[in-house]
Amino acid sequence: MSDTLKDKIAIVTGARRGIGKEIALKLAKEGAKVVVTDISQEDCQKVVEEIEKLESEGLALKLDVTNEEDIKNAVAKTKEKFGKIDILVNNAGICLLEDIKNLDLGVVEKILNINLKGLIELTYAILPEMIAKKYGKIINIASIAALVSWSKIHTYSASKGGVIGFTKGLAGDVAQYGINVNAIAPGAIETPMLDSILKELRMTREQVCQFTPKGRIGKPEDIANACRFLASDEADFITGQVLIVDGGYSIK
Ligand code: NAP
Fold first, then answer.
1. What is the pLDDT of residue 149?
2. Which of 107, 123, 160, 193 to mutate to test the pocket of ligand 1 (most atoms within 8 A of CB)?
3. How far is Cα of residue 101 from the mean position of the Cα atoms in its chain?
4. Residue 103 in contact with residue 118, Cβ under 8 Å?
5. Residue 22: which of 189, 180, 185 has the closest Cα?
6. Which of 30, 100, 207, 237 could form a disulfide with 4 if both were Cys (CB 3.0 to 4.6 A apart)?
7. What is the pTM of this model?
8. What is the mean pLDDT, run by run of 10 residues, along the chain of 252 residues?
9. How far apart are alpha carbons 164 and 166 in whole angstroms?
10. Are 136 and 87 in contact (CB under 8 A)?
11. DSSP letter string over 121-169?
12. How much distance in Å is there from the Cα of 1 to the middle of ligand 1?
């Protein structure tokens, strides 16, 4: 275990699997105590057991980012167990495909509620604590879908564009309180989400790789590494930025 994040307390959303789980484990490996949250507490507990094997500490909590009570509870329980919150990783997100000939505002509402409104609500709930302590690292997981066009995910793209706008706007307002706010924009990363998108779009991994200069699909660890850096004091002079981690997909 390294000590880059020693004694730091982190909350990660959507962390029962995929990118969020890898981020939780990476932060723990760097010495942070991690509150592992997602829609299912049971799966989060399994991640906490892995964190304990790394000789760090964790706490599993049910946190649906669209549920006000869950948000209040997560803030209260984190402070009760660990006394503070230093790092917030807003990772929870969904990607629902939309057919241009069969548009549904219910789908739009669902995507925006989770990917954007929920992210803002949780951030607002944690900011007073960070402002009071004059310390905080907020990392928002966006997507290159906010920057380049992908088929059938226009509302998802809008939600991630909103995440980037929120990141930049908030960063300017809270820098004076010692708080850094940055976003990571992943390209295609091997997780259950990518699996279902590729299936629905009838795309192969080979096709994605063809358009990716690095010639491979990303691993959750590629995102976790970027997140570890932005969560650390090595990134103290970086705020309001979007770190693109996509193997070069967006430069083509
Ligand atoms: P994933 O495997 O689907 O994991 C996302 C997690 O978030 C799931 O456990 C999911 O639970 C949870 N979640 C969904 N709605 C939630 C809510 N209301 N409150 C709390 N948690 C909720 O996806 P991933 O690929 O790891 O994605 C993580 C983040 O990276 C997302 O923001 C995604 O948009 C972004 N991203 C992913 C890729 C990629 O290629 N994988 C690319 C760019 C950006 P359920 O399973 O119950 O839905």
1. 94
2. 193
3. 31
4. no
5. 189
6. 30
7. 0.98
8. 92 98 98 97 97 97 98 98 98 97 97 98 98 98 97 97 99 98 98 96 96 98 98 98 98 91
9. 5
10. yes
11. HHHHHHHHHHHHHT-EEEEEE--GGGTS--TT-HHHHHHHHHHHHHHHH
12. 27
Sheet of 242-245, strand order: 58-62, 33-38, 9-12, 87-90, 136-141, 179-186, 242-245
Counting from 1 in the atom list of ligand 1, the atom nearest the Cα of 14 is: 7
Helices assigned H by DSSP within 38-94: 41-53, 68-82
Quote the pLDDT of residue 25.
Answer: 98
Which mutation among 65, 191, 200 tests ligand 1's pocket best, with the greatest number of atoms within 8 A of CB? 191
Kindly state the tokens that stand for 78: 């984190």
Q: State residue 252's pLDDT score.
A: 86
The answer to whether residues 181 and 239 touch, using CB atoms and an 8 Å cutoff, is yes
What is the pLDDT at residue 18?
A: 98
Sorted by where each begins, the domain ranges of the chain are 9-187+220-251
May I ask the CATH class of domain 9-187+220-251? alpha beta
Residue in the block written with tokens 């980012």 = 65
DSSP conformational letter for 115 = I
Cα–Cα dist 192/38, whole Å:
15
> Which atom of ligand 1 sits closest to the CA of residue 144?
43
Tokens at residue 192, please?
């259950």
Residue 227 CB-half CA count within 13 A: 33
What are phi and psi for residue 138, nearest 5 degrees? -115, 125
